[in-house]
Amino acid sequence: MKKTFGLAALAAVLACGGAYAQDINVKIGVLSDMSSLYADIGGPGSVAAAKMAIADFTKDHPNVKVEMISGDHQNKPDIGTQIANQWFDVDKVDMIIDVPNSGVALAVSQVAANKNKVFIVSGAAASDLTGPKCNANTVHWTYDTWMLANGTGTAMVKTGGDTWFFLTSDYAFGHALERDTMAAVEKAGGKVLGKVRHPLNANDFSSFLLQAQSSKAKVIGLANAGGDTINSIKQAAEFGIVKGGQKLAGLLVFASDVVALGLPTAQGLTLTETWYWDANDTNRAWTKRWHEAGAAASKYPTMIHAGVYAGILHYLKARLALGPGEHDGKSVVAKMKATPTDDILFGKGTIDPNGRKRHPAYLFEVKKPTESKHPGDFYTLKATIPEAEAFRNPKDSGCPLVQG
């Protein structure tokens, strides 16, 4: 009997081992802005980051086979929706990641929920993705408008910027950033004197800036991003707005924006980010590899690129834990939420019930040209916002997934 039991047990172990060794096949779609105002903060840099994550994971787990495709949503929700449907239905994509542009991201999030697939947001900012528009298939990884508002907005009021005027990009992202920053400013004791909204990817900000200038507000809050932020800051300098005593609050500023502006123009900007390429040796080493993976040598990675890398790693960990075979999106996201996050770029973290990835945020100030010691040395760290404070309490989010 003992011999028989031993052989049976051995057979069971071998069967389990064989099952574990089976290939796990995954297909990932990087959906981004490849050619317009958000191409530097996502775009080809996000593709390079995705390649790095896939290579790093599969090196340690050769039984995980990952295919990646990429596409350009052109900042149009209808095109983003068409691509997402094509990828999920025809190309058998399991997960879509990135999607800078909140209007597109909100649309893709709904498609992922309808198809029961996975959507990891790194590029978009609207806090509604983990608020009233949340679903069980979406994880919001890198940053959001609530974090930006309560980092930069609150800090500016505390240092004397207690009257505000908003220059806002007229679509979902800008509206959310304006709304969340207004709430943060007023909570901190500030007052909003007015606002004006501009079209996405605008070239001429003169009329909008003149309204902001005439408001006499101490702070002009730029609720825009990418090329719109760059152009509005450049034109504000031409109008002498900062020299006239008003301050610009770049509510979403990336390293790529600082490169485009140059330190003489960008110096003194206060901003909030969750990752900075020059913060430590680990990030600098990762940046070197990012360039080797195909990112332009003249570019610096943004927190969005870091979020694509980290988000894919955590997704693949969840898929590995679930094992071979097909797994519906809700099951994969549930596993992602149940598993503590840990990667070299963001460190240890968690994912809230509403899908909000939680990690520290950092309040930076752009250096003066004389303070910068080497190319890409852009920021001085002003404060670290711990993960418990950096993002909204899920109970206050309005997400129907959150109990109580």
Q: CATH H-level name of the largest domain... which superfamily?
A: Response regulator
Count of discrete alpha- or pi-helical segments spanning 4 or more residues = 14
Shape verdict: globular
How many structural units, i.e. domains? 2
Low-confidence stretches: 1-20
CATH class of the largest domain: Alpha Beta
The mean pLDDT is 93
**CATH architecture tag of the largest domain:** 3-Layer(aba) Sandwich
Which secondary-structure class do the elements indicate?
alpha/beta
Helicity, as a percent range = 40-55%
| Radius of gyration of CA atoms, rounded to a whole number | 22 Å
Question: What name does CATH use for the topology of the largest domain?
Answer: Rossmann fold
Give the CA-CA distance, first to last residue: 56 Å
Percent strand equals 15-25%
The profile of the biggest β sheet is: 5 strands, parallel
User: What order do the SSEs take from the amino end to the carboxyl end, as H and E?
Assistant: HEHEHEHEEHEHEHEHEHHEHHHEEEEEH
Number of strands: 15
Q: Please state how the strands of the largest beta sheet are arranged side by side.
A: 2-1-3-4-5
Describe how the helices and strands are arranged.
Blueprint: H1 2-21, E1 24-32, H2 43-60, E2 64-72, H3 77-89, E3 95-98, H4 102-115, E4 118-121, E5 138-140, H5 145-158, E6 163-169, H6 172-187, E7 191-198, H7 206-214, E8 219-223, H8 227-238, E9 247-250, H9 255-261, H10 263-266, E10 270-273, H11 281-292, H12 303-322, H13 329-338, E11 341-343, E12 347-351, E13 357-358, E14 361-366, E15 379-385, H14 387-390
Parallel strand pairs: 1-2, 1-3, 3-4, 4-5, 6-7, 6-8, 8-9
Antiparallel strand pairs: 10-14, 11-12, 12-13, 14-15
Helix pairs in contact: 2-12, 3-4, 5-6, 8-9, 12-13
